[in-house]
């Protein structure tokens, strides 16, 4: 995942080239990790193949009117019209207010004084999506503490005269959500890809993953533990938590897996490395509670709502309950979910295949389809989750 090809971001109320977003090495953001992050999913109503038809192999930079340096968001209202969009294409931000409310809560937990209100950030995120010629996969929000300045009047992290900067970055990836997509991220993870999930030695004798996600998610229970709420709150969307997730994923990838499952210090199941975990057994859909270290995921909440709609079709009952390693091994089905990667079926845990019983077949697939339809604006009762840009 990287910056959209436009090369522009929103920074402190202005559209600027992303190369101008420089963080001083002696700032609290760098030296103390004083950074809060949030990802907001983008979606479109047109088929994935059509959306890519004018992007693959075509240089669209000449057709996009780039914002002038330093112009404010409100001055760039024409950016959407100048961007390359398909006829009839509609672009959405999914549950953007919920995401920015969580972003604001994280800043409050961290003692960081967020300089923009939620309404302003929602409008700015929409402007970021409008200015992109290619539909971004998500908008990445970042709040970070810069160098203290005498003109600053607020205090952050106990530091007087703190400056807090906010950036919104349009992020691209090889798979994004659209009306004809499934919501599984089929991007192959680093390393040569071949079937079987074997490990191979690279030139520096380290093991790299060989399991593309197109073959499904193969998870391992990590020896790393979920962050303790008494050390670093899981509710805090911090850069430190993301680094913890990278450590966890690095471990399992070296063992030939492409996802990690975290337990808490008591051995209860918490989550996957970057998202939430669900299992299906008999007619029950279960997910760990926040008290066991499960992140307060917005996609998790979405799945719980969508699962209620499947109650009559599958006689499906929903539980938020503590789980053990044995519960994972006994599951018929399992899946991971997150904002940036959607719903991803897990096909094995610790080399144990999840075959699925007769009563549970089709549940994960039905949730995927309903989630896809929700993102595309096809389900009227959930259209208030979409913020059209």
UniProtKB/TrEMBL annotation:
Signal peptide: none annotated. Coiled coil: none annotated. The keyword Disulfide bond does not apply. InterPro entries: Aminotrans_IV, Aminotransferase-like, BCAT-like_C, BCAT-like_N, Class-IV_PLP-Dep_Aminotrnsfr. Keywords: Aminotransferase, Lyase, Transferase. Residues 62-86 are annotated as: Disordered. Pfam families: Aminotran_4. GO terms for molecular function: lyase activity; transaminase activity. GO terms for biological process: carboxylic acid biosynthetic process. It comes from the Bacteria. Residues 69-86 have a biased composition (Polar residues). Belongs to the class-IV pyridoxal-phosphate-dependent aminotransferase family. PANTHER family: AMINO-ACID AMINOTRANSFERASE (PTHR42743), AMINODEOXYCHORISMATE LYASE (PTHR42743:SF11). This is Branched-chain amino acid aminotransferase/4-amino-4-deoxychorismate lyase. It comes from Cryptobacterium curtum (strain ATCC 700683 / DSM 15641 / CCUG 43107 / 12-3).
């Amino acid at each position: 995942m990287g910056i959209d090809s436009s090369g522009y971001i929103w920074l402190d109320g202005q559209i600027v080239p992303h190369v101008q977003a420089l963080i001083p090495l002696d700032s609290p953001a760098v030296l103390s990790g004083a950074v809060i992050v949030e990802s907001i999913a983008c979606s479109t109503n047109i088929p994935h193949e059509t959306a890519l038809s004018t992007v693959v192999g075509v240089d669209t930079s000449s057709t996009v009117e780039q914002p002038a340096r330093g112009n404010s968001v409100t001055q760039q209202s024409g950016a959407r019209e100048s961007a390359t969009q398909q006829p009839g294409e509609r672009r959405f931000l999914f549950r953007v207010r919920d995401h920015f409310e969580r972003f604001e809560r994280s800043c409050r937990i961290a003692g960081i004084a967020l300089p923009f209100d939620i309404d302003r950030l929602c409008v700015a995120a929409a402007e970021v999506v409008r200015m992109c010629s290619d539909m971004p996969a998500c908008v990445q929000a970042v709040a970070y503490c810069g160098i203290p300045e005498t003109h600053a009047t607020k205090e952050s992290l106990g530091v007087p005269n703190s400056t807090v900067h906010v950036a919104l970055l349009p992020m691209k990836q090889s798979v994004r959500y659209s009306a004809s997509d499934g919501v599984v991220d089929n991007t192959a993870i680093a390393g040569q890809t071949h079937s079987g999930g074997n490990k191979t030695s690279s030139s520096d004798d380290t093991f790299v993953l060989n399991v593309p996600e197109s073959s499904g998610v193969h998870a391992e229970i990590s020896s790393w533990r979920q962050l303790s709420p008494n050390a670093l709150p899981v509710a805090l969307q911090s850069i430190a938590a993301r680094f913890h997730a990278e450590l966890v994923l690095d471990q399992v990838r070296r063992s030939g897996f492409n996802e990690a499952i975290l337990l808490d210090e008591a051995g209860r199941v918490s989550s996957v490395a970057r998202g939430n975990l669900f299992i299906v057994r008999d007619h029950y859909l279960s997910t760990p509670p926040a008290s066991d270290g499960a992140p307060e995921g917005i996609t998790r909440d979405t799945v719980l709502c969508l699962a209620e709609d499947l109650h009559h079709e599958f006689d499906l009952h929903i539980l938020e309950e503590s789980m053990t390693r044995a519960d994972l091994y006994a599951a018929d089905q399992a899946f991971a979910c997150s904002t940036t990667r959607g719903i991803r079926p897990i096909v094995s845990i610790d080399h144990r295949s999840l075959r699925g019983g007769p009563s549970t077949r089709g549940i994960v697939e039905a949730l995927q389809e309903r989630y896809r339809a929700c993102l595309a604006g096809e389900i009227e009762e959930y259209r208030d989750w979409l913020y059209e840009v």
